[in-house]
């Protein structure tokens, strides 16, 4: 009898059930994918609505109010522009019977560029409500900070929201360009402008006619994981400043993992179009991508995914790396050694640069440092020094255009007594440009057209708190190199102090002081570099020769110097004043602070640095074996603050006076500090 072949009924039924389960799962998966695509489509429409509203607000016809919605002045909460606040019904799939309802609202904060540390130099943007009444303000806000929110209800009945933030400046749309055209009658040689009373190097470059580009002071939004830099282009008028453009950059540190082949973006770039500078969005390409580990800044998703170069990107000059080749990716193991990340899931460090465009941060090519310099904080208060620095910046830019090594800024020897002296370091950066853009500028330079700076985006950035400082003879003079930690710990006498670039002269002699910084993104970051030191391109500033002077015996060149710390009392604890700038501007005028000795035998000066670099006092020259009292006072008396001394030996000493417990035999650096408490 021949054996039977085939399947039993039970086997067929089991196979059908398995197939049915698979089909049902596939159907559910397809349904989920379709719902996800629909959700992303609707979210994209919401973002587009927000972008259209921001563009609508910027398209005003006049500055001052003439009717309800067509002026810069009329922009306020849910007011301004042609698109009204409220519900908007939009067809999301082409079927006019199926409409998705969106609700659009916006809030507006009027902001002014004001002086927050009472040094007669404007340094920070502040909301109108946070500015003290004694500040003289222009008739119009210098910018409006807009937050646009679009809400909708998802298919599951959940309320969804997307938000867009952006700046609206008092610049009419037809004038909002980077390059300002000039005529032969208004041509001027580019030069540097500085406020004479600035305690630190603040100012701007005059690039064309009366158009200025500001110097920049980096800031740290919340911690050391990112660095913010703002560059403002403006005109000075007799009673107010007219802001033309403002560029906001963020340099962010991310922890990533290799994800393999995928889709990532090329960087957005500044390009030359119709003899104007415009932002060109990045494009999607196939390349190696990464993913961000959980719990980081949302920008890390783009940073890890996109910050990879391909050979095609290098050929087309649309790469991130400033060098001729793509940078490699490295992680740091438990021993502190760098390991090359090549395989999927390999961890690596990444540092990316973003630019805010239409309210959102877009990834940009890496920072490109072309020259680094250093000098003491008083250097640019001299007219001849300002002219020398002006020529230094211009020659550095010309050299970079021609792929040449810029020259260093020649500086004289610095003479000081024992005590403290603040040094500054500045980096000149340029934007990554395409070859045809560079050639366009070269032709203008060659033909002596003075508007060439209109087409070369460059940035003069204060990198004092980011550079690495070194002294060749630390027994003669040390220089501060503190890690970026702003915390209040009364037990360990920490009150938010942070210092870099402060020279402390110890004894008679000479020392060479040098500042170095990484040329790319790593230079504008407090985190460890994302590649090994051997792979980094490092720039070194001109070396300064420092001479500590005084008489040998009896010694009369001693000094007492220390931090001026400021903290604000909150409900349960204290925070550093640099987190409370409005209060600091209101109640702590450091220019009114005085330090003196009981017998008026020497002079005490206060160096006021830009936050978060700690300000400090320096009393010199003091004769050996001096023992007396130091006194604090404010003129006029400020009832909103209390003055104290802090000593390593005595702890916190309440009140404005302190008596040295022992005669002074050596220069005292950081043993004593002033503590200001805002009530």
| Quaternary assembly | single chain
Low-confidence stretches: 173-202, 579-587
The number of helical elements comes to 6
Report the sheet-strand fraction. Answer: 35-45%
> Total number of β-strand segments?
40
Tell the overall outline. Answer: globular
The major sheet is characterized as: 8 strands, antiparallel
Cα Rg: 30 Å
End-to-end distance: 105 Å
Overall pLDDT = 80
Proportion of residues in helical segments: 10-25%
The structure class reads mainly beta
General description of the model:
The chain has 679 residues and is mostly beta strands. Among the domains are: 30-176, no CATH class; 554-679. Helices cover 15% and strands 39% of the residues. The strands form nine sheets. Strands 6, 7, 8, 9, 10, 13, 16 and 17 form an eight-stranded antiparallel sheet that branches. Strands 30, 31, 33, 34, 36, 37, 39 and 40 form an eight-stranded mixed sheet that branches. Strands 1, 2, 3, 4 and 5 form a five-stranded antiparallel sheet that branches. β4 (143-153) and β5 form a beta hairpin. The protein is globular and about 105 Å long. Residues 173-202 and 579-587 have low confidence and may be disordered.
């Amino acid at each position: 009898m021949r054996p039977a072949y085939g399947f039993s009924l039970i086997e067929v039924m089991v196979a059908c059930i398995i197939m049915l389960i698979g089909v049902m799962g596939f159907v559910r998966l397809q349904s989920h994918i379709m719902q996800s695509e629909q959700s992303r489509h609707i979210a994209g429409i919401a973002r587009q609505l927000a972008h259209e509203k921001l563009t609508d607000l910027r398209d005003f016809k006049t500055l001052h109010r003439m009717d309800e919605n067509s002026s810069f002045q009329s922009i306020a909460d849910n007011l301004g522009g042609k698109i009204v606040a409220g519900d908007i019904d939009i067809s999301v799939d082409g079927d006019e019977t199926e409409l998705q309802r969106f609700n659009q609202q916006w809030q507006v904060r009027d902001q002014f560029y004001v002086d927050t540390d009472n040094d007669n130099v404007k340094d920070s943007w502040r909301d109108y409500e946070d500015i003290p009444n004694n500040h003289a303000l222009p008739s119009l806000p210098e910018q409006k900070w807009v937050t646009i929110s679009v809400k909708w209800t998802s298919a599951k009945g959940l309320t969804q929201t997307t938000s867009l933030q952006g700046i609206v400046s008092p610049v009419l749309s037809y004038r909002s360009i980077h390059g300002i055209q000039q005529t032969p009658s208004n041509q001027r040689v580019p030069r540097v402008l500085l406020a004479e009373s600035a305690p630190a190097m603040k100012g701007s470059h005059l690039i064309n006619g009366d158009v200025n580009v500001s110097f920049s002071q980096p800031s740290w939004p919340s911690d050391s994981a990112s660095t913010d830099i703002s560059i403002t282009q403006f005109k000075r008028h007799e009673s107010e400043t007219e802001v033309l453009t403002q560029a906001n950059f963020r340099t962010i540190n991310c922890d990533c993992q290799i994800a393999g082949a995928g889709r990532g973006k090329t960087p957005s770039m500044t390009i030359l179009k119709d003899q104007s500078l415009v932002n060109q969005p990045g494009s999607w390409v196939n390349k190696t991508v990464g993913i961000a580990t959980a719990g980081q800044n949302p920008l890390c998703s783009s940073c890890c995914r996109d910050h990879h170069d391909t050979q095609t990107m290098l050929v087309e000059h649309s790469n991130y790396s400033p060098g001729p080749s793509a940078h490699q990716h490295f992680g740091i193991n438990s021993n502190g050694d760098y390991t090359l990340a090549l395989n999927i899931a390999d961890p690596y460090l990444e540092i990316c640069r973003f630019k805010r465009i239409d309210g959102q941060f877009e990834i940009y090519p890496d920072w490109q440092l072309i020259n680094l310099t250093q000098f003491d904080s008083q250097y640019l208060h001299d007219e001849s020094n300002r002219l020398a620095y002006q020529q230094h910046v211009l020659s550095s830019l010309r050299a970079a255009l021609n792929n040449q090594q810029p020259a260093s800024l020649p500086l004289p020897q610095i003479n000081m007594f024992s005590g403290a002296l603040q040094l500054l370091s500045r980096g000149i950066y340029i934007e990554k440009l395409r070859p045809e853009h560079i050639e366009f500028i070269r032709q203008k330079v060659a033909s002596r057209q003075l508007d060439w700076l209109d087409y070369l985006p460059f940035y003069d950035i204060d990198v004092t708190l980011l550079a690495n400082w070194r002294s060749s003879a630390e027994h003669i003079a040390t220089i501060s190199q503190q890690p970026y930690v702003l915390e209040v710990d009364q037990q360990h006498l920490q009150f938010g102090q942070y210092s870099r670039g402060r020279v402390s002269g110890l004894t008679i002699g000479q020392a060479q002081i040098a500042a170095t910084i990484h040329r790319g993104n790593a230079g504008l970051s407090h985190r460890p570099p994302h590649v090994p030191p051997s792979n980094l391109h490092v720039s070194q500033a001109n070396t300064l020769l420092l001479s500590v002077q005084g008489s040998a015996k009896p010694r009369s060149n001693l000094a007492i110097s220390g931090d001026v710390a400021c903290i604000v009392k909150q409900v349960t604890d204290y925070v550093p004043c640099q987190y409370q700038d409005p209060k600091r501007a209101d109640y702590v005028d450091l220019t009114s602070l005085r330090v003196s000795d009981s017998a008026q035998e020497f002079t005490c000066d206060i160096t006021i640095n830009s936050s978060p670099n700690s300000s400090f006092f320096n009393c010199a020259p003091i004769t050996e074996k001096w023992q007396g009292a130091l006194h604090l006072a404010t003129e006029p008396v400020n009832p909103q603050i209390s003055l104290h001394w802090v000593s390593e030996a005595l702890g916190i000493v309440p009140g404005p006076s302190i008596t040295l417990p022992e005669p002074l035999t050596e220069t005292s650096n950081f043993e004593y500090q002033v503590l200001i408490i805002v009530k």
